[in-house]
Amino acid sequence: MRKVVITMNEMKLSKRLQTVAEYIPDGAVIADIGSDHAYLPCYAVLNHIASRAIAGEITDGPFLSAKQQVEKLNLSSHISVRQGDGLEVIQKGEVDAITIAGMGGSLIAHILESGKDKLTGKERLILQPNIHAIHIREWLYKEGYALVSEMILEEDGKCYEVLAAEAGDKDAAYEGFSFEAGMLVGPFLAKEKNAVFTKKWTQELEHTEKIHEQISRAAQSGHNKQKLAELTKRIELLKEVIGHG
Ligand code: SAM
């Protein structure tokens, strides 16, 4: 690799993306889908975490930013910037790990579902949803991936989850835990129950209780009754998870 002069900004990733990078297996070839400025693949290659990388982007602006960033750092021999939708930018078997970060959980699950013909099942999937991680856990379970690790962190007042999955026993992570709650909040995160986790789900509980109260005061149509039953169930589940009896 050519020697490059790197500024602090280029070496220093957000705590969120740094956590994603920690899950990249040593020396892996990675694909970072929805790479935007390609900060994650640049960081991973510069720090010798990944041996090579593909930065995938669907949108013109971010695709150009990724290309410029990779060229600026003289990393073109190690990072291939490709424009396309989701996993269509990779060949089957081309990468050891796939990172998809900074999007909603449903979009990440959609990208995986529509590109699943590109997966051998042996890639490590490192997924960082900003919201609705449940859609990713459900997709992983449906497709038979083992959830192997999870992290939750707070940065600039926002909570982020990072999920790592690979081939293995899809049930193992959920053993000894309510399956429904595990899917919603994450089995590893629920067992660890750190301060960020407790804060996130306490806020969610308070929000759900508020909606429940508002609907309780409205006219009791069939639709509202059903909604109230759903909310009551969710409140019980969240109380169980947080440990507020
Ligand atoms: N991954 C970076 C991060 O975590 O900081 C960038 C996140 S940015 C909010 C989401 C990026 O994903 C955007 O640049 C968007 O163009 C891209 N994107 C959205 N859907 C995509 C898809 N189906 N395939 C590839 N890129 C996509």
Automatic annotation (TrEMBL):
Domain of life, per lineage: Bacteria
InterPro entries named among the record's database cross-references: SAM-dependent_MTases_sf, TrmK
UniProt-listed Pfam families: TrmK
Protein name: YqfN
Organism: Bacillus atrophaeus (strain 1942)
